[in-house]
């Protein structure tokens, strides 16, 4: 009986390890797509689930990143007082407008000391219409996500697992960036 128990345990371990290895290999293909600002993108060696920490929409509704499962999701942590964040926000809207839809979405989360009024004013002043105005006012989600500097962008697969992250700003409207995201969508669909 012990031998059967060990055989089942060993087989389960191999299946789990193979699944992790396949997931790692699958998204490692993105390394071949790193051109332009995507050269700064770090592909995760192993995917891990996004934290379940709560953040809020403009109406005060509680959300978690798992609420966005089902599509490849680009999560951008930013702040109204962060100059590089402010610089890249319009390009995030261009990216969202160009390829956002059933398979891809951009989620922007203002974190730490970014009041609701300041976020609304920033979006109005910069004519940003299509991006969400989510807030993580006390920085709980940012800390749970390992955000040490702003801006920070995390790419999640459709199951809510981290694929990659980019520290610092990027031009999300560059052709190379759009091609990188399209390749990530293609790989994610094969999951």
Averaged pLDDT, please?
A: 87
Instruction: Write down the overall geometry.
Output: globular
- Work out the radius of gyration: 18 Å
Tell me the number of strands: 8
State the separation between the terminal residues, measured CA to CA: 36 Å
List the total number of helices.
5
What share of residues are in beta strands?
15-25%
Strand order of the largest sheet: 1-8-7-4-5-6
Parts with pLDDT < 50 across at least 5 consecutive residues: 5-23
Helix- and strand-based class? alpha/beta
Order of helices and strands: HEEEEHEHEHEEH
Largest sheet: 6 strands, mixed
What percentage of residues falls in helices of 4 or more residues? 25-40%
Topology record:
Elements: H1 2-28, E1 42-43, E2 55-56, E3 62-63, E4 72-78, H2 83-99, E5 104-111, H3 116-125, E6 134-136, H4 140-144, E7 152-156, E8 162-167, H5 175-189
Parallel strand pairs: 4-5, 5-6
Antiparallel strand pairs: 1-8, 2-3, 4-7, 7-8
Description of the structure:
This protein is α/β, with parallel strands linked by helices and 191 residues long. It contains five helices and eight strands. It has helices at 2-28, 83-99, 116-125, 140-144, 175-189; strands spanning 42-43, 55-56, 62-63, 72-78, 104-111, 134-136, 152-156, 162-167. It has a six-stranded mixed sheet with strand order 1-8-7-4-5-6. The protein is globular, with a radius of gyration of 18 Å.
Key features of this structure:
191 residues; alpha/beta; 6-stranded mixed sheet; 5 helices; 39% helix; globular
Short summary of the structure?
The protein has 191 residues and is an alpha/beta fold. The protein contains five helices and eight strands, in the order αββββαβαβαββα.
